[in-house]
Give the backbone structure.
Amino acid sequence: MLKILPILFGVIAVSLSAYGLITRDYQLNFLMIFFLGLSMLTIGIREFQSKRKAYGLFLIGVFLFSAYASIQSFIWM
């Protein structure tokens, strides 16, 4: 399951960014950032399971920052 979710979240993020580039409508960028963060979270959890804790902590930190940025951009929208 942790192998499929990062790919799924990545495909969603890429499709949202492609939509924004094609239509020049950047209102969904907060969702793109959020799904990229979810992808980093699932990869970070998988790294914790494989005993690489430093890399896992880094990826979870990236998720927290991207979730914060996504929520901030949604609020200021």
